[in-house]
């Protein structure tokens, strides 16, 4: 049985609720009047061309940037309440957020300490086929190995809302299968997933809804 999601804010609140949300970056209106409801435990594929605003929307849901106008809630917490939002959300981004001078083991142990959690670091590194690289500095890992380490951290921390930017980029065929396994497992354990990617056929395997972002507007394709 997969371990339960921690912490467990199992309230009736939706995981994500956006109402009339706008975001301006510089001169660009990147997100325009978005309304969105994502229920707890859902899996959402977020598709769109390069520059459509997928990464920006994920960063906004992680409270890394604030909306220009409108209302956004994560498990009922206002997006502007960064501390509360960050307790519930994990963002797997292009930048990965890993410490390049630490080893994979040190990165994972540090993440556990930051979240006041315990976890099986050698076990999760083994799952992601990183045992042989556990003592190298992250800066000396390949891009695909860094992506697998970011997935190991996501698997270990098990936040209730996972915002995942291009999980399949830089991964070989076996790595993609491993990423699908990790995403399927965290979703089965109760996490809500929003996955931005350019591989609709892969994201469909771990999600139940498809959203498209174009010209700053969201639309949903029925499956
Ligand atoms: N800090 C910023 N300041 C100004 N404009 C920005 C900033 N960050 C992103 N943008 C702009 O916002 C738009 C959306 O970018 P974003 O990275 O969210 O797209 P994306 O859908 O994730 O693209 P990709 O598929 O290429 O990763 C782009 O026009 C980009 O130039």
TrEMBL record:
Pfam families xref list: ABC_tran
Tree of life domain: Bacteria
Entry's Gene Ontology molecular function annotations: ATP binding; ATP hydrolysis activity; transmembrane transporter activity
Keyword set includes DNA damage: no
Limits of the ABC transporter domain: 16-223
UniProt cross-references to Gene3D superfamilies, sorted A to Z: P-loop containing nucleotide triphosphate hydrolases
NCBIfam families: ccmA
PANTHER family, alphabetized: ABC TRANSPORTER ATP-BINDING PROTEIN ALBC-RELATED
Protein name (database record): Heme ABC exporter, ATP-binding protein CcmA
Organism name: Deinococcus peraridilitoris (strain DSM 19664 / LMG 22246 / CIP 109416 / KR-200)
Lineage: Bacteria, Thermotogati, Deinococcota, Deinococci, Deinococcales
